[in-house]
Amino acid sequence: MPALNKNDTAIIKLSLQILASARDDGSQQAIRTDAVRLALRCLRPYMREQWPLHTFWDAGESENELGRSASATASLNGIAHQLRAAGIKVDDSI
Known about the structure:
By secondary structure, this protein is mainly α. It has helices spanning 6-25, 34-43, 51-59, 65-85. The model has no long low-confidence stretch (mean pLDDT 90).
């Protein structure tokens, strides 16, 4: 993977913040928003496997608040893991 420039790094960081916010608010409101869709789309080029992105989006369909939260958390952890494996620094608070 080529070296990331400042814009790439900022986009990745902002995308992760959007997803973390959606995960945290997921029990109270919908996860499937335009901001989440854009954040997932921005992360696609940096992901070797696409399943965490799909799982995060699919978590928004769950009617069960606990299930939605658990799926969003697990998939966000998968996203962070794949980014770290690609050599991209990810804040530990995600």
